[in-house]
TrEMBL record:
<dbReference type="InterPro" id="IPR052609">
    <property type="entry name" value="Ribosome_Biogenesis_Reg"/>
</dbReference>
<dbReference type="GO" id="GO:0042254">
    <property type="term" value="P:ribosome biogenesis"/>
</dbReference>
<dbReference type="GO" id="GO:0005730">
    <property type="term" value="C:nucleolus"/>
</dbReference>
<protein>
    <recommendedName>
        <fullName>Nucleolar 27S pre-rRNA processing Urb2/Npa2 C-terminal domain-containing protein</fullName>
    </recommendedName>
</protein>
<dbReference type="Pfam" id="PF10441">
    <property type="entry name" value="Urb2"/>
</dbReference>
<dbReference type="InterPro" id="IPR018849">
    <property type="entry name" value="Urb2/Npa2_C"/>
</dbReference>
<feature type="domain" description="Nucleolar 27S pre-rRNA processing Urb2/Npa2 C-terminal">
    <location>
        <begin position="1076"/>
        <end position="1262"/>
    </location>
</feature>
Length: 1264
C-alpha cells in the first residue's frame, strides 16, 4: 500500500515536515495511490485539522493527485468523492485565490486532456460551482457593474476571477475551455438567466469585443491586451455552446437590449469583422440557429452573401450543415419560397459587388482572420449535392399552392436572367445557380400523384408552358453569341428536367387533360429533339449539337446524351417510335460511349431497353469499367438493382474477367523450349470469340470445350506464382456478380473454364481452392447436372484425381442427378467406378454420400423405373460396404460405413448378415471409444445413436455403457454439421439413463460449464451450452425435470454474472440468448419465479453495454421478450410489472438513440428504424392480451409521450412509436382517455390530442 505506515495517517499530530515529505513522495512516485487510499487520507480528521491552516499545501496535494491520474473514470470518481476539497477548507478566506492559482489550471488542463469525455467537463464544472460560485457575490457584482455603482472591496473574488480569465487568453485551447468552464459553472449555479446574460457580456468584453458603448456599464479593468479576433471567435463559440444547453430567455434585457437582439448584433459583427468565414464562424452561426432560429431568418441576406460567396474548401462540411440549417429554418416556418426569393437577387447583386459593412460591435484588437479575395466561384461549390438534396425534401413538404408559387418565382427570375444574359464570364455563375435550383425543383415536385387536385396540376402545367417560352428565348440567345459552356450547360439541364416533368404529367394525367406538344417530322437525325423540345427548331438543335461536339466540355456532352435517351424514352412511352427513329439514336449513343458516361449508360431505362440493341463492344466496355470499380472496392453502381439483375452486364463482366485471366496465363517461351505448355484454360478460350458470353452461340461450343478438358486429362505444369495474386482477385470478383441468375448455358461455360483453370493451377493451392468453391456454388444453386458436359465415370475420376473439395462437389452433383430420370440412368458408370474403387478414401466417402442421398430418395418425386434404379444403386453400394467392413479391421474411415450398414440391416429381415455385424460390433465400439476425435466424431455419433436406438436388439447395454458414451462426448468439439446427430444422442442418453445417474451427469455438466466461464474459454463454454440446449429438448420424467430445473436456476445465475462482467461478443452473447430462448420454448420445463427474473434481467444487462453494440442487444432483448410472451403467456401476465419495466427500458434507450440530434450514417439509421419496428411488433403482441393490458395501456402511452417531450425524435423512429400508441389506444376506454387528458403535462396533452384525433378519424370501425 502506498500510504501504509506513513506518519501522515498514523501520527496524532502532523508536522509540516511530514506533509512536505509525503508530497515529495507522491510527486516522485511512479504510480498514484488508489482511490481507497486517497479517500482515507482526505477524510482523516488529523489531516483535515492540519490542512485547515495550510491551504496551499492542501491544494498542492489535490493538484498532485489529479496530475497522477491517467484515466477519466478515476478522475471523475476523485472529484465526486466527499473528501475532495472539503467544506472546512473551502470556507477559509485564503482558499479562493489559492484554488484559482493552483487548481483551476490543473482542472482546465485535465478537461483538455479528456476533451472527448463530456463527463470529465461536467465533474470539473461541479467543483467550480462549489468552490467559486457557491455564494451570491458574483450576482451582486454583476448588478452593481451594469448599474454603474462603485464596486467595493467585497467584490475582490469577482475581480480576481475576471483577471484570471483575461490571463487565460495567451493559450487558445486553455482559454476556450477555461471560459466555457467558468461560464457553464456560473450558469448552473444561477437560476436567473439575466445574470447569465450579464456574465456573457462581461466575458466577451474581456475577449476584445467593445460592448461598453451599447450596454453602458462600468469600465472593466481586466481586459486582454492586444486581443486576437481569431481567439475571440473561438471563445465566443465555446460560450455559445454553453448557451445552447441552457433554458434561454430570449426576452431577457440589459438596458432595454434583449438577449435576442444582442445575439443578432453579435452575429452581424462577426460577419463584418471576419468578412469570410472559417470553421469557427460556421460553428457560431450553427449555435445561433439553435439558440434562436429567427435570428437566422432575419439576417438571411447577410448570411447568404457571407457564406455562399466565400472559399469554403477548408470547411465544406460546416458550410453544408449551415446551409441545410437555413433551409430547415425556412421550411419549418413554411417560407421556403421566401428564402429562394431572397437568395436569388441577393446573390446576383453580391456577385458583382460583395459588401458586408454593418458593424454594431467593434473589436479592439487585431483582425487576424485570413481573408481570400481572389475567389473563383463554382456552382457545385456554392450549392453542392447535399444541400440540393435537402432542398428537395423542403419542396416535397410544401403545399401544392406553395410549389406553384415557387415555380413562378423561379420562372420570374429566370426570365429576367435570360433577358439580361451576363457578358462577364464571372457573372455566369448566377445563371448556373438559378438553373441548378430550377432543375432540382422540377426534379422534386410531386404533382403527378393521384392525390393532387386536378386544378393544381393544370396550374402547374401552365407554369411549365411559361418556362417553355423562356427556354425558347434562352436557346435562341445562346446561338446568337459565342459558345459559353456554363450557360449552355444551364440551358440543357433545365430543358432536360422540364421535359421529364411534362412527360410524367401527361403519362399520369387523368382524362388526358394535360397534353404535351410533340412535333413529328421526316428528319430522323438523332439530334432532332423537336419531338419533346419544340421551343427550338430542328436546325437550332442540330446547331447546338455541333457546337457541343466541337467546343463543348464533358458535362455538356453528357447532358446531350441524356437528352437523346430522353427522346428515345418518349417515343417508346407515347408509341410514336419506329426503327427509323430509334436506330440513329442507338448508333449515336454507341459511338459516344466513354468512361465518363457510365452513370448514363447504367441508367435503368438504358440497361433494360437500350443496352441489348447496342453493339457487344459497348457492353464489354461498360463491363470493363465496372470490373475496374470492383477491383478498387467500389460497388456502388453494381449494387443498383437493375444493374445487378441485368444478365447482359453480368455476361459482359464474365467476358472481361476471363479475358484478363487468359492474358495472365499466357507464358513467354523461347523458340526451342518445349517444356512450357499452353494453359488448358487458354486452349479452351481459343475456341471462343472475344464476346464469348454475349455471342448467343454458347451451346454450340460447350461440347468442344468439354472434349479439350477430357483429352488433356494430365495436369499442367504451369508456374502461376507471379500471377497468383491477380488471379485470386479476378476469381474473387466472380463471387460478387449474380452469376447464378444467368442462363444455364452461361453457367455451364463458366464451370468448364473454371475446371480448365483448376487443372492449370495444380501447383497453386489458393487458386485451386477458389475454383472449387466457385464450381460448388454454381452447381449448388442450379438444377442442371455436370453429366450434360462429362460422362459420369470421367467426372467421378476427375473429382478423385484433382479436387480437394471433391466430397462437397460430389454431394451437390448427386443432389441434382437424382432429380432427373435421364441423369439417373446416365450416372450408372459413375456408380460402377465408385463400387470398384472403394478402397480409395475419396471413393469410399463418395459411396457414403451417395448412400445417404439414396436413403432419402423416397421423398423425391420420380418415375417407378427411376426408383428401381436408385434402389439397385443403394443395394449394390450397401453390399460392397458390407464386405469392406466385415473383411477389414476397424479404422476411422470405416466407422461411419459400419454405422450405416448396421442401421440398414437392422431395418431388414436378414438375420445372417445382422449376426455377422453383431459379431464385429464390439470391435468397432471399442475402437470408437479409444479413438474418438473431432475428425471422426460424426461417425462415432452415428454409431452410438444407432446402438441406443436398437438397444434391445443389439444386446443389453447397461447404464455403464451409456455413461461411457457421455464421458466420450466431453472430449470432442461440436461441429455444426454434426449438431443433429449430437442432439439425438444426448436426447437418448438423458431418456435412457437412470435418475441417480442423471443427477450425477448434470452435476458434472454444471461443474465443467462453470469452469469454462471462470477460465474465459468461450469455445468450450459454447459447446456446453449446446449440450444444455439438447437436454432441454428432451421430455423427461418428473424426477429428472426437477433436477433439471434446479440446475437451470444455478446456471442462469452464472450466465447473468457472465453478461454483466464481459464486453459484448457476437458469438458468445448470441449463444447465451439463444440458450435462454430454448429454456422459454421448452414448455415441459416449469419456470419458477427466480428463473423468470433471471430471464427478464437479461434485457437491462444487455442495454447497459457499449452503444456501438446497441442494435444487436436491442434485437436480442426484443426476441427474448417476444418468446416469453408467446410461450409463457400466463406466467408473464401474472408478472406483468417486471416485464413492462424491461419494455420501458427498451423504449427509453431507443428514444435516446433515435433523437434527431444524434448524427447517424444511413445504414445505422435504417437499423435503428428496424429496432423501432420490432418494438412496434412487440407492442401489438402485448395488445393482444386484452384482458390484462387494458388497465395498463394508458400508462404505456404516457411513457411514450413522455419521451416525445424530452427530445425530438427521428421521423422514421417516431412513425413506429406512433403506431405503438395507436395500438395501445385501442385498449383505452373513454375513462382512460379522460384520465390521460387530465394527468399528462401540457406538451404531452397536445401530442395526445393530435394522435387521438387521428385515431378516431382513420381507425377501422368494421364498416366500408
Amino acid at each position: 500500500m502506498f500510504l501504509e505506515g506513513d506518519p501522515i495517517l498514523t501520527s496524532a499530530s502532523i508536522t509540516e515536515e511530514d506533509v512536505v515529505n509525503y508530497l515529495e513522495k507522491l510527486k516522485n512516485a511512479d504510480t498514484k495511490p488508489c482511490q481507497k487510499e486517497i479517500t482515507a487520507l482526505l477524510q482523516n480528521q488529523n489531516v483535515l485539522r492540519y490542512f485547515k491552516f495550510h491551504v496551499e499545501q492542501y491544494c498542492e496535494l489535490h493538484k498532485l493527485i489529479i496530475t497522477k491520474i491517467e484515466d477519466s473514470h478515476d478522475y471523475i470518481t476523485f472529484l465526486k468523492d466527499d473528501g475532495t476539497l472539503h467544506r472546512l477548507i473551502r470556507e477559509r478566506d485564503d482558499f479562493f485565490n489559492i484554488f484559482l492559482e493552483m487548481l483551476v489550471p490543473t482542472l482546465i488542463d485535465t478537461c483538455c486532456k479528456f476533451s472527448e469525455n463530456e463527463k470529465v467537463f461536467m465533474a470539473s464544472s461541479e467543483v467550480i460551482q462549489k468552490c467559486v460560485f457557491s455564494s451570491k457575490e458574483f450576482i451582486c457584482y454583476f448588478t452593481d457593474f451594469f448599474e454603474k455603482k462603485k464596486c467595493t472591496e467585497k467584490h475582490i473574488q469577482c475581480k480576481a476571477l475576471l483577471k484570471y480569465c483575461a490571463s487565460l487568453c495567451s493559450n487558445l485551447e486553455s482559454a476556450g475551455v477555461g471560459f466555457k468552464l467558468f461560464f457553464y459553472s456560473f450558469s448552473k449555479s444561477s437560476k436567473n438567466f439575466n445574470n447569465i446574460y450579464k456574465m456573457l457580456v462581461i466575458l466577451l468584453e474581456i475577449c476584445g469585443f467593445d460592448l461598453k458603448t451599447e450596454f453602458n456599464f462600468n469600465k472593466l479593468k481586466y481586459q486582454v491586451q492586444e486581443p486576437s479576433l481569431n481567439n475571440a471567435l473561438y471563445i465566443l463559440n465555446e460560450l455559445l455552446d454553453t448557451v445552447t444547453k441552457l433554458k434561454v430567455d430570449l426576452e431577457s434585457k440589459i438596458n432595454d437590449i434583449t438577449f435576442s437582439d444582442f445575439i443578432k448584433k453579435l452575429v452581424k459583427s462577426v460577419i463584418t469583422l471576419s468578412q469570410h468565414p472559417n470553421i469557427c464562424c460556421y460553428q457560431i452561426l450553427l449555435k445561433v440557429a439553435e439558440i434562436n432560429p429567427l435570428i437566422i431568418e432575419s439576417l438571411v441576406n447577410e448570411i447568404l452573401v457571407y457564406v455562399m460567396l466565400s472559399d469554403n474548401t477548408s470547411c465544406r462540411k460546416e458550410y453544408e450543415q449551415l446551409m441545410i440549417k437555413i433551409f430547415e429554418v425556412f421550411s419549418k416556418l413554411h417560407r421556403t419560397q421566401n428564402l429562394i426569393s431572397k437568395m436569388i437577387p441577393t446573390l446576383q447583386t453580391a456577385i458583382k459587388e460583395r459588401k458586408l459593412n454593418e458593424l454594431p460591435y467593434s473589436f479592439r484588437g487585431t483582425v487576424d482572420v485570413q481573408l481570400k479575395t481572389d475567389i473563383l466561384y463554382s456552382a457545385d461549390d456554392i450549392l453542392p449535392e447535399v444541400i440540393l438534396e435537402y432542398f428537395t425534401s423542403c419542396i416535397i413538404s410544401l403545399a401544392s399552392w406553395q410549389t406553384i408559387n415557387l415555380l413562378k418565382t423561379m420562372t420570374f427570375h429566370l426570365k429576367k436572367a435570360v433577358e439580361q444574359l451576363p457578358e462577364v464570364q464571372e457573372e455566369n455563375i448566377y445563371v448556373e445557380i438559378l438553373s441548378s435550383l430550377t432543375c432540382w425543383l422540377l426534379l422534386s415536385v410531386r404533382v403527378a400523384e393521384h392525390t393532387v387536385a386536378e386544378n393544381t396540376v393544370v396550374k402547374f402545367a401552365e407554369g411549365l408552358e411559361e418556362l417553355k417560352t423562356i427556354l425558347g428565348q434562352f436557346g435562341a440567345k445562346l446561338l446568337q453569341r459565342e459558345h459559353n459552356h456554363v450557360l449552355m450547360r444551364a440551358f440543357l439541364n433545365i430543358s432536360y428536367y422540364w421535359a421529364e416533368v411534362y412527360m410524367t404529367l401527361e403519362y399520369y394525367s387523368v382524362n388526358n387533360q394535360i397534353k404535351m406538344t410533340k412535333t413529328l417530322d421526316n428528319n430522323f437525325s438523332a439530334f432532332n429533339l423537336t419531338y419533346i423540345h419544340p421551343y427550338l427548331s430542328n436546325k437550332e438543335w442540330c446547331h447546338i449539337s455541333e457546337r457541343i461536339n466541337n467546343f463543348g466540355e464533358k458535362p455538356c456532352k453528357k447532358i446531350m446524351q441524356k437528352l437523346l435517351i430522353q427522346k428515345l424514352r418518349a417515343f417508346l412511352i407515347f408509341g410514336d417510335g419506329n426503327n427509323d427513329v430509334v436506330a440513329p439514336i442507338i448508333r449515336t449513343l454507341s459511338t459516344s460511349f466513354d468512361a465518363e458516361s457510365v452513370d448514363i449508360f447504367s441508367d435503368r431505362f438504358v440497361v433494360n431497353t437500350v443496352l441489348d440493341k447496342m453493339p457487344t463492344s459497348n457492353i464489354i466496355s461498360l463491363a470493363e469499367i465496372l470490373v475496374k470499380d470492383l477491383v478498387e472496392g467500389n460497388t456502388k453502381v453494381l449494387d443498383e438493382p437493375h444493374i445487378n439483375d441485368s444478365q447482359l452486364i453480368t455476361q459482359g463482366i464474365l467476358c472481361v474477367i476471363f479475358t484478363k485471366i487468359n492474358k495472365l496465363l499466357k507464358q513467354k517461351r523461347k523458340h526451342d523450349d518445349t517444356s512450357v505448355r499452353k494453359a488448358l484454360c487458354s486452349k479452351a478460350m481459343s475456341l471462343l470469340p472475344t464476346d464469348m458470353f454475349l455471342c448467343g452461340r454458347i451451346e454450340e461450343v460447350l461440347g468442344s470445350v468439354s472434349e479439350i478438358l477430357v483429352s488433356e486429362s494430365h495436369h499442367q505444369n504451369i508456374d502461376l506464382k507471379m500471377q497468383e495474386e491477380k488471379l485470386e482477385l479476378y476469381l474473387e470478383l466472380l463471387t460478387k456478380i449474380p452469376l447464378i441468375f444467368c442462363s444455364e448455358s452461361t453457367q455451364k461455360l463458366t464451370v468448364l473454364l473454371l475446371m480448365a483453370l483448376h487443372k492449370d493451377s495444380q501447383n497453386c493451392e489458393n487458386i485451386k481452392l477458389k475454383c472449387e468453391q466457385l464450381i460448388i456454388s454454381i452447381v449448388q444453386h442450379n438444377r442442371f447436372t455436370l453429366l450434360d458436359l462429362f460422362e459420369s465415370s470421367v467426372l467421378v475420376k476427375t473429382l478423385v484425381d484433382s479436387f480437394d473439395s471433391s466430397e462437397d462437389l460430389f454431394f451437390q452433383i448427386v443432389q441434382n442427378v437424382f432429380k432427373s430420370d435421364t441423369a439417373i440412368t446416365k450416372f450408372e458408370p459413375g456408380v460402377s467406378y465408385i463400387k470398384d474403387n472403394l478402397r480409395q478414401d475419396k471413393c469410399l466417402r463418395f459411396a457414403v454420400t451417395l448412400f445417404n442421398v439414396l436413403s432419402k430418395i423416397r421423398k423425391v418425386k420420380m418415375s417407378p423405373q427411376s426408383k428401381e434404379v436408385c434402389l439397385k444403386y443403394k443395394s449394390d453400394i450397401c453390399h460392397k460396404m458390407l464386405k469392406l467392413v466385415l473383411k477389414n479391421s476397424p479404422e476411422d474411415r470405416l466407422i461411419e460405413v459400419f454405422g450405416l450398414v448396421l442401421k440398414t440391416f437392422l431395418a431388414k429381415d436378414e438375420d445372417d448378415t445382422l449376426s455377422k455385424l453383431k459379431t464385429r460390433l464390439p470391435e468397432y465400439v471399442e475402437y470408437s471409444f479409444n479413438n474418438m476425435s473431432n475428425i471422426n466424431s460424426k461417425a462415432c455419433l452415428l454409431l452410438f445413436t444407432t446402438i441406443l436406438h436398437n438397444k434391445t436388439i443389439l444386446g443389453d447395454f447397461s447404464d455403464t455403457f451409456i455413461l461411457r458414451i457421455w464421458d466420450a462426448l466431453k472430449t470432442i468439439a461440436i461441429q455444426n454439421d454434426s449438431l443433429e446427430e449430437y442432439s439425438q444422442l444426448v436426447t437418448l442418453i438423458t431418456t435412457l439413463i437412470a435418475n441417480e445417474h442423471f443427477s450425477n451427469i448434470f452435476g458434472n455438466l454444471m461443474k465443467v460449464t462453470e469452469r469454462s466461464i471462470e477460465s474465459g474459454d468461450d469455445k468450450e463454454f459454447c459447446k456446453h451450452l449446446k449440450t444444455w440446449s439438447c437436454i432441454l429438448s428432451t421430455n423427461v420424467n418428473p424426477a429428472k425435470t426437477n433436477i433439471l430445473r434446479e440446475q437451470l436456476e444455478f446456471l442462469l445465475e452464472k450466465l447473468i454474472l457472465l453478461l454483466k462482467s464481459r464486453l459484448y461478443k457476437d458469438d458468445l452473447f448470441e449463444e447465451v440468448i439463444q440458450f435462454k430462448i430454448s429454456i422459454i420454448q421448452a414448455n415441459h420445463v416449469p419456470l419458477t419465479a427466480s428463473l423468470i427474473d433471471f430471464l427478464l434481467s437479461s434485457v437491462s444487462i444487455l442495454l447497459m453495454k457499449d452503444s456501438h453494440d446497441f442494435i444487436h442487444n436491442f434485437s436480442s432483448s426484443i426476441t427474448l421478450l417476444e418468446n416469453l410472451l408467446k410461450y409463457r403467456n400466463p406466467l408473464i401476465m401474472d408478472r406483468l410489472p417486471p416485464y413492462l419495466l424491461q419494455y420501458r427500458l427498451l423504449l427509453k434507450e431507443l428514444c435516446l438513440r433515435g433523437s434527431s440530434h444524434v448524427t447517424l450514417q444511413p445504414t445505422e439509421a435504417q437499423k435503428l428504424t428496424d429496432c423501432a419496428h420490432k418494438l412496434e411488433k412487440l407492442t401489438k403482441n402485448l395488445v393482444e392480451c386484452t384482458k390484462d393490458m387494458s388497465r395498463i395501456a394508458m400508462y404505456l402511452i404516457a411513457d411514450i409521450l413522455g419521451q416525445y417531450e424530452l427530445d425530438t425524435m427521428d421521423p422514421n423512429v417516431k412513425k413506429h412509436l406512433n403506431n405503438c400508441i395507436y395500438s395501445l389506444i385501442a385498449l383505452c376506454d373513454q375513462h382512460a382517455v379522460q384520465y390521460l387528458m387530465r394527468v399528462l403535462s401540457n406538451p404531452c396533452t397536445e401530442f395526445f390530442k393530435i394522435i387521438y384525433a387521428n385515431y378516431k378519424k382513420y381507425r377501422f370501425t368494421g364498416k366500408i
